[in-house]
Design goal:
There is one protein chain. This protein is an all-alpha fold. 62% of the residues lie in helices and 0% in strands. Helix 2 packs antiparallel against helix 3 and helix 3 crosses helix 5.
């Protein structure tokens, strides 16, 4: 059986503009950090796309919730939505969850001295 790729038009400039700007800024700060520790431009580009997809899903189906307030249940809902609505394969889902997990680790390990993030506990595994 041959493989096929599912293409979804998820992110549009209009939708992205409506996304939680604090989430977008947090993601951009993390991507800049990744640049500073010499991650490959392709990895950073892939993470940027993954974040945009997640931000739009969060806007549309999760009340545009701040990233630091997400629950394990909401991450599971995203995973289920990607699998059953967008038709993503398990590898694609794992890749996006890995991106979100790395962002969570960045908040916990690097931003922990910021009062806004001092009690943050990662929920993405």
């Amino acid at each position: 059986m041959s493989r096929f790729t599912v293409y979804n038009n998820i992110v549009t400039p209009d939708k992205l503009e409506k996304c939680n700007q604090d989430n977008i800024q947090l993601g951009e700060d993390w991507l800049e950090y990744l640049q500073s520790i010499d991650r490959s431009p392709q990895t950073i580009s892939g993470y940027r796309n993954d974040l945009k997809i997640f931000w739009v899903w969060n806007l549309t189906y999760n009340k545009n919730k701040p990233f630091i307030e997400l629950t394990k249940r909401e991450i599971a809902k995203f995973q289920n939505f990607a699998l059953n609505t967008w038709g993503w394969g398990s590898a694609r889902i794992r890749r996006v969850k890995s991106c979100l997990s790395s962002l969570s680790n960045y908040i916990q390990d690097i931003l922990d001295d910021d009062p806004e993030f001092e009690d943050y506990k990662p929920v993405v595994r």
